[in-house]
Structure formats: C-alpha cells, structure tokens
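User: Please fill in residues for this 307-position structure.
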C-alpha cells in the first residue's frame, strides 16, 4: 500500500496495516461493550423496579386490615380488607386532599386528642406472625404532655393490656419508637427520624424466631428477640392513646395503614415503599434528586442483605 506525501511515495508494511486495523477494532469494541453495559444496566434496573412494584393483590390473602382514608368526609373510615374492620374518627381528624397524600386522600391528626378507634380485629392472632405498615408525615415527634418517661405518641396501637401490647409511634428528639410488651418481656426499638417528610414504617413480628423488626423506608433499622407472648386479641387505635399514660397523640399526616397476618419479606416491604415514592414523585411532593437518593438507598440495602 502506497500513499503520496510531498511528491514522495511512502510505503506501509503489512504488519503496520494489521496493527492499525487491530487498534481500530479494539476502540470500536470498547465503544460497543460500553454501550451494551449501559443498556444492560438500565434494563436490569428497570426489571428490578418492575419486580419491586408488586400489586397489593399479591398480598391480599394476608391482609387483615387496610385503612386508606379515601372517604374525604364523615366520621367513618372503611377497611378495604374483606373483614370490614371499619374505624371511627374521634375528636375530629381532618381529611386532606390527594395532592397532600400518598394514595388518594389521607388524614391529619392534631396531636391534641385526635385518633381512630377500630376495635378488635378478626382473623388474626397477634401472638403469631404479623406485619404492620403505615405512611406518616409528622409535624413533631412524641407528645410532650405525656406522663410516660419517653413522652411517646402512638401511630398504631394494638391491645390495651400493658402486658400484651404493640405500639408503633414516636418519642421526643425526633425518634421513631416501637415497643412490644409480652407476658414476660418488654422490648423497645428506637431509630432517628425527620419531620415534614413522608416516611414508611414497617414492623414485622416473626413469631417463628421470637423476633420483632423495625423498617424505615424499607431499610432494617432495628431488631430484637423476645420471650413470652403478645396478647392474641386486642383493639386497634390509629393516631393516638397510650395504655397507662396520659395523652400520647400524633401530630401530622397518616396514610395507608395496613396489617397483615404474615411475616413480610424485605422485597415485599420494598415494593410497598417504591409504589409510595413513585406517587410522591408524580405529585411533586419529592424532588427527582430525593427520589434518586431513596432508590439508591434501596439498592444499598438490597446489596447489604445479600452479604
């Protein structure tokens, strides 16, 4: 092969030509591989998100109570499970519009005396496996009026007997708080939180392993073993009231309270959480940056659980 340069003929050896072709081929292959890796990464992430977004119908057989607060008016809220554990709004929780909530409408609790009385749930034994899930957007943590040492405020309370109760709520200094009191032990789980943002709380009672677990935004934040039994029956209150304490009312928004009679997996909890933050993004209640950060945190949590 010859080329003309300044009227002189310059020749390339066969080896030089082959080396040039090889270099061009390597550059092209790197570009293709990078593009394939990028496409594959996007495809795998999309597939992962698809797996997370699981219809509630998949869990419907385990759903014992679900209060979405979508009525928008009145003093009753419907349980969308088949058991019709409808709740009664007490002292005036305020209905909020869809633009403020996770799905549909939600309720604002004033932290003074608002709560919902549900009563005893059928078809669940709280001495066995169960999971509680709830979305909250709090104005403050705890109830400073309480005569209990940790100034707690309840979001979900099951049972009224102090020796057989589950309480899911908050205490002062911006901390989420879960306690179970069984026939022979008293367990507390505490983890930091933040006001004025939607947060998904999940509490799992794994009776097989005698263990209680607390998840915040689908991430495991605390777990503890216990002995003894929870009460197998107990009335449910949402938004406030605490056994053997004065006050204990939540101030802020509550939405999508659900109780299941099984131990939900991390993947199932993540699917509920992802569905919620997808809606928050669509409504402009969180930024794209916040959404991406929450997704990345889910990924980090998923990888940590595989180790």
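Assistant: Residues filled in for all 307 positions:
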């Amino acid at each position: 092969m010859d080329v003309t340069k300044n009227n002189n003929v310059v020749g390339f050896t066969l080896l030089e030509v082959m080396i040039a072709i090889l270099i061009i081929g390597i550059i092209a292959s790197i570009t293709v591989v990078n593009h394939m890796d990028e496409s594959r990464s996007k495809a795998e992430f999309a597939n992962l998100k698809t797996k997370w977004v699981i219809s509630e119908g998949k869990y419907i057989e385990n759903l014992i109570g679900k209060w979405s607060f979508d009525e928008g008016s009145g003093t009753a809220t419907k349980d969308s499970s088949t058991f019709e554990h409808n709740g009664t709004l007490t002292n005036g929780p305020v209905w909020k519009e869809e633009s403020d909530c996770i799905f549909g409408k939600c309720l604002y609790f004033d932290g003074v005396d608002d709560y919902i009385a549900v009563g005893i749930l059928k078809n669940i034994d709280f001495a066995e496996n169960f999971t509680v899930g709830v979305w909250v957007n709090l104005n403050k943590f705890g109830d400073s009026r309480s005569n209990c040492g940790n100034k707690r405020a309840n979001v979900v309370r099951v049972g009224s007997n102090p020796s057989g109760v589950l309480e899911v709520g908050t205490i002062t200094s911006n901390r989420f708080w879960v306690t179970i009191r069984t026939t022979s032990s008293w367990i507390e789980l505490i983890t930091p939180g933040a006001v004025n943002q939607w947060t998904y709380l999940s509490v799992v009672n794994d009776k097989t392993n005698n263990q209680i677990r607390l998840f915040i935004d689908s991430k495991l934040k605390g777990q503890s073993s216990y002995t003894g039994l929870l009460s197998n029956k107990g009335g449910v209150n949402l938004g406030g009231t605490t056994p053997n304490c004065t006050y204990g009312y939540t101030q802020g928004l509550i939405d999508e309270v659900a109780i299941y009679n099984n131990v939900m997996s991390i993947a199932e909890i993540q699917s509920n959480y992802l569905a919620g933050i997808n809606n928050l993004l669509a409504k402009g209640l969180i930024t794209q940056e916040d959404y991406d950060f929450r997704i990345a945190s889910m990924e980090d949590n998923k990888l940590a659980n595989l180790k």
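For context: Residues 2-51 form one domain.
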